[in-house]
Design a protein that fits this description.
Number of domains: 1
Order of helices and strands: HEEHH
Strand content: 5-15%
Distance between the termini: 29 Å
Structural class: mainly alpha
Radius of gyration: 18 Å
Largest sheet: 2 strands, antiparallel
Number of strands: 2
Length: 78
Amino acid sequence: MNLRKIVLIFVISIQFCFVTAYAATCNSVNIDGVKWYHDSDEKRAIYLEIYNLAAHRIKHQVKKEHLKKRHMGCYLRY
């Protein structure tokens, strides 16, 4: 069950990356009267902060549940 949470967080963060990458192809976006350009340093800083937050939550969840390698995969025995 806890592995599902980790995978879900990972999938959501990957989807966010795809959405932001697609949005970055536009020249500008007008949100609430504020114009954001795709090369804006402020926009990149916000995206980086969100990415780092998601990465921190995943790492924290893994440490909290004490997941080890043997729980993440399977062994084939002959």
